[in-house]
Specification:
By secondary structure, the protein is mainly alpha-helical. The protein has two domains: 70 residues, no CATH class; 45 residues, no CATH class. Helix content is 56%, strand content 6%. It contains three helices and two strands. The protein starts with 9 loop residues before the first helix and ends with a strand.
Length: 121
């Protein structure tokens, strides 16, 4: 019998690299949003950090990175306007998801309409 070299399936290899990249991107996104800001310094040492917080940041980061690359101009460069638009969208809906506007920590008596604090103060 001849010595045969098993050729690794490139699609399987590429998928593993993508998944690893997505996990690293999600960890970095969660780290910079939660740990660096001081909001939740031990997010990676809690079960809810991996089952709740990490998926939220990872999925939204992946979605917005996908949108950013779909908005690429013909030149192949992402403009500062695209980055600003994507980060603004992220900040706007992340504030509603994390209940910063539902229950603002800076003022419990803020003006609310339907439970949403529109004007913090």
């Amino acid at each position: 019998m001849q010595n045969q070299i098993k050729i690794v399936d490139k699609t399987h290899s590429n998928l593993l690299i993508r998944i690893l990249f997505w996990i690293i991107l999600g960890v970095l996104s969660t780290f910079f949003a939660e740990v660096i800001s001081g909001n939740e310094p031990i997010v990676f040492f809690q079960s809810f950090g991996w089952t709740g917080v990490f998926p939220i940041y990872a999925l939204h980061t992946l979605l917005l990175v996908y949108l950013a690359f779909k908005l690429l101009p013909v030149t192949g460069w992402i403009s500062i306007r695209t980055i600003y638009l994507i980060s603004t969208l992220f900040g706007m809906y992340e504030a509603y998801m994390t209940k910063v506007l539902w229950n603002p920590p800076w003022n419990a008596m803020s003006f609310r309409i339907g439970g949403v604090s529109f004007f913090g103060g």
